[in-house]
Amino acid sequence: MSKNKIFILLPDGIGLRNFAYSRFHELGVEQGYDVVFWNNTPFQLTGLGFPEIVIREAKSNKRTEVYKNARKQIELNRNKRQFNDAVYDTYRFPYSYRNIKTALKSMATQWLTWRYTSDSGIFKIRQNIRELEKQTAYFRECKKVLETEKPAMVFCTNQRPMTAIAPLLAAQELGIPTATFIFSWDNLPKATMVVETDYYFVWSAFMKAELLKYYPYIQSESIFVTGTPQFESHFEKERLLSREAFFQANGLDPNKKYICYSGDDITTCPDDPEYLENVAEAIETLNREGQELGVLFRRCPVDFSDRFDSVLKKYKHLIVPVNPKWEKKGGMWNTILPTPADLDLQMNTIAHTEMVINLGSSMVFDYAAHHKPCAYINYDVENKKIADWSVKKIYKYVHFRSMPDPKAVIWLNDKNTIGAAIREVVVNGKSDTTKAEEWFRIINAVPPEMASKNIWNAINTLLS
User: Fold this and answer.
1) Superfamily of the domain at 5-60+136-228+448-463
2) Which candidate, 426, 280, 282, 434, places its Cα nearest to that of 355?
3) Spatial separation of the C-alpha atoms in residues 152 and 3, rounded to whole Å
4) A GO molecular-function term, please (predicted)?
5) What's residue 331's pLDDT?
6) CA–CA separation, 384 vs 389, rounded Å?
7) How confident is the model at residue 13 (pLDDT cuts 50, 70, 90)?
8) What is the DSSP string of 199-227?
9) Of 144, 154, 281, 384, which residue is most buried, by most CB within 10 angstroms?
């Protein structure tokens, strides 16, 4: 076993931003590690100068998906019962019966959920997943790679993908320590844990408590609080362009001040175009009063739809779309992947806009890192695209309970409040972000710019 070789497992593109496009690799090399990306994404990391071993055939057992889906349902059942909280039902997706194959999967998932909804049952489900994945050619190939390369640790960048199970099981069978990073602030209440590793890396003490709450078989001493590299770029001032350069590059009017409207995916916010239009209407009113304002529209990176086209056309004199620099590598949402250039684009978007408006996004923390406010949309439009969809459902999600004070964001409770909120921030200069920054400190370890270093320090501790 090579005591300084660390495999960074990228089971999908989710981890690219945090671990390939940040200073994470650089810091590992500085500490004397041979950092190798075990890459299951469509991106070639050798183009960035990173050593990589490409995973060629990441095929899980055909039955694993059903067991994984049943595990999620059983965990949500348990959480709902244990915490007497119906919110966990909102994390379920409807079963699909669109063809024979999906119908059979749905029925099998429901049967397993019924059969194994108990603490002993969930243990058996987890055990079956491990046994199924060990039967695959994928597992055997992973084991061969590890026997040849002999890394000191396999660090997985995301706890959710099924394709991460086999590589981690292969490492564990060979006695190689394994770890995973919990990649998002809302993941744990949703029952998204798919992998099981020796160690877990989390954003904060708050997330550590969540991990112990939802997965009591995990030991406290195996959890490391490190923060997330997700926000590190906001503190790398060398990435900043001048206002003039950023405006010129993105077709913005230098005489205007811009509000960022940050879009969601169509599932999270089916009425996003209407909300964007409401913001444009409010700004148009302010401009008639003598202001010079505009909207910078940053769509959700995985939303390539045309649903905003009519609003963008109608308000082309106000709204400037500055699309995320992500690339579509396949048909599924998880094959739409970030590029290194998007880190710079997002940071400069925040630096050169006055505030952000969105529906319940973690962009509140990105803007808090720049001491700028976030306004949350908190009303339903009159003609909703989906009758049973509501903002009330969104803000009942468990992760919003971490908010220390409602004043952490500006609440837009009606479309008629948008203009007043913008006036307070942009015109009157009242943008107290104290509570937002307090929330940021709860969600993410302090100082946020040290996350990558904290992860390497924890790896050092484990390997020594």
Assistant:
1) Glycogen Phosphorylase B; (3.40.50.2000)
2) 426
3) 5
4) transferase activity
5) 58
6) 8
7) confident
8) EEEESSHHHHHHHHHH-TTS-GGGEEE--
9) 154
